[in-house]
Amino acid sequence: MRRQQKEERRRVEQERRRLEEERRLLEEERRLLREEQRLFNENRKQQDPIQITETKECSKCLKDLNVKNFSNITYQCGHDVYICRKCIGEHIAHAVNKGSIKILCLENNCHEVLNESDVRKFSNNEIFERHIYDKFCIIGNSYF
Ligand SMILES: [Zn+2]
Ligand SMILES: [Zn+2]
């Protein structure tokens, strides 16, 4: 009877050790999987350079440009911007040169009116001052 108990205890102890070893191996495997996943992600990052995700084609000049070259045309615009800052600047300059004081967003179907700070954002001093001057003259001549 005592021998049997002893035998039994030894068996349990063996089993416990086996389970412990198994758990250790599982943990090791999990660690390796995580490491593999990390290397995989790193590799993928290297394969598609950031450039690809950070450029956009301007729908006007058709140039592939860094997303930094795009910004909301007016404060109220809720749409995505597909026209680069330079093209918007040209659109504004063209409108100002025509003597127009009401400059509209040129993205498809938007037609929001650009306010002064929108015009400022895309124009050089000369264009901006002319815009302000034209606006002042027209309002000064009791246009409203
Ligand atoms: Zn453009
Ligand atoms: Zn717009």
From TrEMBL:
Q: Which UniProt keywords apply?
A: Coiled coil
Which spans of this chain does the record mark as coiled coil? 2-46
The UniProt entry, under Gene3D superfamilies, shows: Zinc/RING finger domain, C3HC4 (zinc finger)
Protein name in UniProt: RING-type domain-containing protein
Q: Which organism is it from?
A: Gigaspora rosea
> Could you read off the lineage of the organism from its UniProt record?
Eukaryota, Fungi, Fungi incertae sedis, Mucoromycota, Glomeromycotina
